[in-house]
TrEMBL record:
UniProt name for this protein: Ice-binding protein C-terminal domain-containing protein
Organism: Iodidimonas muriae
Alphabetical list of InterPro entries matching this protein: Ice-binding_C (IPR013424), VPLPA-CTERM (IPR022472)
NCBIfam families cross-referenced by the UniProt entry: PEP_CTERM, VPLPA-CTERM
Transmembrane segments: 218-237
Length: 244
């Protein structure tokens, strides 16, 4: 499993150049997927992380089938996040603490990249010029302040890479890490807004496989109201379906 806290002697300027050469751009806001639903058997690098509401995109490559999956989920306590069935999740403002005492927003974003092929690993694709990244949004309004997490240096020998992260984790804002281009601002978990996350695989010819979600963060009473409206709408849909 990839360890997201590893440091080397490379600096941000090296990876900024690498991002430019690879043609990696800043994320586009808005859910993007081939399908939205369950990704069975995927754990996102943790225990008990729901895998039933995932933005999934797939592509055939020379090394096998590539699958990208990205989702959002509640952190440690409380019910799982609600979603609109089309890639937008509803989360509360505020923070909580891990058993080890690490503070985080009450929700996480989680990703999964898998290459399915006989005896193949990401070495085959990275060697052929593919690049893999996760863009994470820290701006609650305009959707432009993205950090970029580049996976390429840590894919050697792997066929699956996954993890669950939180926008309050400090390393995501540290330019000294070799595979992170940090956003210019910070993240305030008590500010409501819309946050976007985009997982992408870029081919050497410039083709891109994308899986992206939005997380709409609202104050707790508002989230309960949205859930109530969703249940009312669901009940209305069921009544309409029962009419013959």
């Amino acid at each position: 499993m990839m360890k997201l806290g590893i440091k080397t002697g490379f600096k941000r300027c090296v990876w900024a150049l690498a991002l430019s050469v690879a043609g990696i751009g800043v994320a586009q806001a808005g859910p993007i997927f081939d399908e939205f639903g369950a990704l069975p058997g995927v754990e996102f690098g943790g225990d008990g992380i729901p895998n039933g509401a995932v933005a999934i995109s797939r592509a055939q490559t020379s090394a096998g089938e590539l699958t990208l999956g990205i989702t959002a989920h509640q952190r440690f306590v409380g019910p799982n996040l609600q979603n609109d069935g089309a890639g937008t999740f509803i989360a509360d403002t505020g923070t909580n603490f891990s058993p080890g005492g690490t503070e985080g927003a009450v929700w996480n974003f989680a990703f999964h990249i898998n290459l399915e092929g006989q005896g193949t690993t990401f070495d085959d694709l990275v060697g052929a010029g593919y690049s893999f990244q996760l863009a994470y949004d820290v701006d609650p309004g305009n959707g432009t302040d993205f950090g970029i997490l580049l996976f390429d240096p840590f894919l050697g020998g792997l066929a699956t890479i996954e993890g669950s992260q939180n926008l309050l984790f400090g390393f995501l804002f540290d330019d000294d890490l070799p595979f992170i281009t940090a956003p210019s601002g910070g993240f305030n978990p008590n500010v409501a807004g819309l946050y976007s996350f985009e997982l992408s695989a870029i081919s050497p010819t410039g083709g891109t496989v994308l899986a992206a979600i939005d997380v709409r963060v609202v104050p707790v009473p508002a989230s309960l109201g949205l859930l109530g409206l969703g249940l009312i709408g669901f009940g209305f849909m069921r009544r309409r379906k029962s009419v013959h």
